[in-house]
Specification:
By secondary structure, the chain is mainly α. Helix content is 74%, strand content 0%. Helix 5 packs antiparallel against helix 7 and helix 5 runs antiparallel to helix 9. The chain is elongated, with a radius of gyration of 21 Å.
Length: 214
C-alpha cells in the first residue's frame, strides 16, 4: 500500500477528530465505539489505529485540539493592540463560543471525570489551565497598572474566569437546556464591566482611593 503524503495523513486524522466531536454531541464519549467514530468519519478501523493508539489517546488528542484552539485565540489577543478589558471580553466570547458546541461540552465533562483516575488527562489538563491562568493574570495585572480595572487579587480573578468557563461546560454537558449561552455571554460581560466601573470609582474624588470629598 502506498504511503500517504503528510497532508493527506493530517486530513484523515482531522476527519477522525471532527467525526468524534459530532458524535459526542448526541452521545457520551465513553458510549462511543471506535466503529462509531470510523463510520462517522468514513474511514476504516485500520486508519483509526494508524493515527491513534487507543480511544484514550483520541480523548487526549481532543483535549489538545480544544486547548490549542483557545490558546491560539489568547496568543492573537496578546499580540493585538488592545486594552486589558477588551482582551478579557474577547477571551470570554471565544471561550463561550466553544462552549456552545454540544460535542465539546460533553467531551469536556468526560475529561473532568477522567482526572479522577487518569494521570495523563489530569496532567495535560492541569498544564493547560496553568498556561491560561498565567496569561489571564498578566492581562489583569496590566489592566490594574493602567487604571482600566479595579484592584483585585489577580491570580484569584484569573482562576474565577477559568472556573466559570469549565463550570458552564460541565453544566451544559449534564443538561444542554439548563441555560442559554447568549444570556451567559451578556451576564459575563456585565461582570467584567463591573471591574472597569469599580476602577473608575477608585479614582474618583471621595472614592476608595480618592481624596475625601467636601
Amino acid at each position: 500500500m502506498p504511503r500517504l503524503a503528510p497532508a493527506a495523513r493530517a486530513e484523515r486524522r482531522q476527519a477522525l477528530l471532527d467525526a468524534t466531536w459530532r458524535c459526542a454531541a448526541s452521545r457520551r464519549f465513553h458510549e462511543l465505539t471506535i466503529d462509531d467514530i470510523c463510520a462517522a468519519a468514513g474511514v476504516s478501523k485500520g486508519t483509526f489505529y494508524g493515527h491513534f493508539s487507543s480511544k484514550q489517546n483520541l480523548l487526549l488528542s481532543l483535549l489538545d485540539e480544544s486547548t490549542g484552539a483557545l490558546e491560539r485565540v489568547m496568543g492573537e489577543l496578546d499580540a493585538a493592540p488592545l486594552g486589558a478589558m477588551d482582551r478579557l471580553r474577547r477571551f470570554a466570547t471565544a471561550m463561550l463560543t466553544l462552549g456552545e458546541d454540544p460535542g465539546r461540552s460533553q467531551v469536556r465533562a468526560d475529561l473532568w471525570a477522567e482526572i479522577l483516575s487518569d494521570d495523563a488527562v489530569r496532567t495535560r489538563l492541569s498544564e493547560a489551565l496553568d498556561r491560561r491562568r498565567a496569561r489571564l493574570r498578566a492581562w489583569i495585572e496590566e489592566g490594574i497598572a493602567r487604571g482600566e480595572l479595579a484592584e483585585v487579587p489577580t491570580n484569584a480573578m484569573a482562576s474565577i474566569l477559568l472556573a466559570l468557563s469549565d463550570g458552564l461546560l460541565l453544566h451544559a454537558g449534564l443538561d444542554a437546556g439548563a441555560f442559554r449561552w447568549p444570556n451567559v455571554r451578556r451576564a459575563l460581560d456585565l461582570l467584567l464591566s463591573g471591574l472597569a466601573r469599580a476602577a473608575t470609582a477608585q479614582d474618583t474624588p471621595g472614592g476608595p482611593h480618592g481624596e475625601p470629598s467636601g
